[in-house]
């Protein structure tokens, strides 16, 4: 039906607006997206099924322009400011954030809630917690009431500088101004307590949730498991699992991964593998973080071959690895007698997968190459020393043979010959005894070293 219609861009002008339509689709059904380009008025994002001739584009664009009048200048200015702040968040430019907020004050632009929200998000992304707290206080001074989501975000930011007092203050403000029904703010507060190793604060927050009737979810119990993983307390981690099941929370991928991280190596290696296999039995898909957590645990236990085998299973499951997986593999090859063949093979394999190495993986590869060169140099030194000892031993045998032959030649009768023979046998026995003592001393020195 539409086989002869040309795909691509069709341009037209409707009441001083440059409009284009992007034509795409099959020969039986065509789609065209009408989008306004100039001037800077709202975009005409409309997808319509029609035969995209210039006449049809002109007619539909004219109808849309009549329905959507241009936005006022204040609205466009608001969008531009928010867009600039979000750009600072992506580029992590903290100085630019302060400059934009200062320009708003100098130019007398009316403050808006979204300005402060975007500025706070960008400051936290740049790890400028002091700047974020400043904008948050300024926001309250201007008469804006922060929403629960923003309070939760501010509480979560306190874990970077381990500021418990500020996190508790924000939580008290949140409970006094809003009716909290979600578990996110409490979970973020628990993460702050976990960062400073305060288990009492974690349990206190858990009891507070119970008092307020807030349902505890997977992320809540995951925060508790994170604390036990820091100190490798598997027994307490299993207790958290039972507590979650009593509350009707079914453990998910994140909780199982944290439980594997709770295992202490090498004593609880079998438990970590058992938990990993239990996930497969229960039909829980294992992701990259789960695989690399178990790989790191096996590396700590010294099970280097099992690390290699687990990476092969990871590839068979079509799970895309991360640079941290490469770091673990390179460290394993380093510990596995400087296995340069495996290290180079993994490096090339990750390069084919277009996974860019970071400073951590580059440092691990450099350490592997350096260790491999040192090991090879030590092997060459030992081999050279052995050749030198063999050469000196051979010269000693030759000199000894020449001396014996000379003594035999100089003997006048058979009696002198037998005396010389007995003397030679005694000397040979003494020499062998001295050689054995020297070898034993060398072995003892090597063991001490």
List keywords for this structure.
four-stranded antiparallel β-sheet, alpha+beta, 69% helix, 19 helices, 6% strand, elongated, single chain, disordered N terminus, 449 residues
Give a description of the structure.
Helices cover 69% and strands 6% of the residues. The protein has 449 residues and is an alpha+beta fold. Among the domains are: 8-70, no CATH class; 375-448. A hairpin with a 2-residue loop joins strand 1 and strand 2. Mean pLDDT is 81; it is low at 1-51.
Computed over alpha carbons, the radius of gyration is 38 Å
How are the strands ordered across the major sheet?
A: 1-2-3-4
- End-to-end Cα distance: 85 Å
**Helix content percent band:** 55-70%
Silhouette: elongated
Q: Total helix count?
A: 19
Mean pLDDT: 81
Strand content: 5-15%
For the secondary structure, the number of strands is: 4
Low-pLDDT runs of 5+ residues are 1-51
* Global structural class: alpha+beta
Order of helices and strands: EEEEHHHHHHHHHHHHHHHHHHH
- Biggest β-sheet strands, sense, barrel: 4 strands, antiparallel
Short description:
Among the domains are: 8-70, no CATH class; 375-448.
